[in-house]
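2024-03-11 09:14:02 INFO queue: dequeued item Cell elongation-specific peptidoglycan biosynthesis regulator RodA, len=517
2024-03-11 09:14:02 INFO validating residues
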Amino acid sequence: MTAKQAARVPTRRNIELALLLLSILVLFVFQVAVEITLLGELTQTAFVLVGLIGAALLAGHVLVRIFAPYADPVLLPSAGLLTGIGVVFIRRLDLSALEYAGGPLVYPTPADRAAIGVFSDPGGRQLLYLIASVVIFGAFLWLVRDHRNLSRYPFILGLTGILMAASPAVIGQTINGSKLWINLGPVSIQPSEFAKLLLLIFFAYYLVRKREVLSLASKKFLGIPFPRAKDLIPVLVVWLISMLIMIGIRDLGTSLLFFGMFVAMLYIATERISWIIIGLSLFTGGVVLLYPFFSHLQLRVAIWLDPFADPYNDGRQLVQSLIGLGSGGLFGAGPGAGQPQQTHPAANSDFILSGLGEELGLFGLTAILMLYLFLVVRGMRAGLAVRDSFGKLLAGGLAFSVGFQLFVVLGGVTKLIPLTGQTAPYMAAGGSSLLANWILLAMLIRVSDAGRRPQAAPVGPIKIAPPPPPVDNSPTQVVSIPGRSQGAEGSTGAHPTRPSPGEPYPPSPSTTPEVKP
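2024-03-11 09:14:37 INFO prediction written
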């Protein structure tokens, strides 16, 4: 494809800009409705808060326009609107947070609510996390110009991911029965959020190289071909690690997320349903074996089976979540008019979806879930469009992790499955989760940019040499091999060689049709 032909491929950045401006308008309307309900007036804070969120999202748009101009135009607006809804709703919870006044919990007065600053309380901190996330997002796009460079150090990344996931078991602090956090003085981090990304990169690298072996079938059972016994070793190793993580940090959700990611990527790589059956059987069996030894796991299952058995203590949050979702109905109580703070202290984290469902109703919550659906589908689409197998598996795993984590969270607050302690991506309070999810978004945008980018187009603002023309248009090369006879030299063709560690991957020829404007 020539440079003239490449110019015909639209970047669609203006579509992304229009979607972002629409997202900012939605956030402003949401914030205005909250303040009118809770404060009785519109304060200057509404303009400052939404203005800062909008500036952060537009900065992200400029970074994509510079460093990944051919990326999918829906990814950034979807994640940005979800993050903005989270910031506005967490601040809305700050305005109605229950306070201790020397006795029972009381609601703050309108004057106290109006005095809360833009950067105060959890809502203000979430805004700061958003700004930091956009900075990290831009740094990733600037540093990683080709997603295939992520596969250059797979074993280091995989080992680092395992150590980060297991570190809270040794130096973590216990909160609500789980050891997910590490206290670093003024801040606390959740290493499993970043370990998830490192393990995804390692899984993609490993499965690209082993998928042909793992695709071999041995015997059929009920018409389904199952793999050979010796090929079960990788999935057994990951299953054992996930069980050890659940034992060490006492968190079912993190263990389920890690093992689910590997099994899903294994299925994407081999297209064999037998791996799904094996994975579900292994994880279910492991949980059943560990169940009698963990009181925290027993409590969560007991709450799931009958939350109304103790509605004022252990089952209080789940009961309030169900009541809130039921009282919200189709259209909700309205922004600021519900009682989502009744699920404190997890109203802005584990139960943020139920709070939004109470105030926005079934229609509003469905619209939020559609934003997640756009993010997952567009991520999968990026994996289909990219040319290399590593990018396909990486994008598929990233998109699956977002969808699977959302299913775990939504299933927990609606009593479909036991509560796992996982939080809604992009919306729940927490700096570690937000930073990790924006890095995940940057990885998806990088893969998407590679999938739609014409070969003749430069990568980012730095002009680099275009890749060589396709093999079909190149003259035949004759390679001389020392020590061979002259007659053998003319029959020797040039074979592509595998790059050694430290060298960039050679560009692969395009196998996708040209994108018409």
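2024-03-11 09:14:37 INFO annotate: The chain has a mean pLDDT of 81.
2024-03-11 09:14:38 INFO item closed
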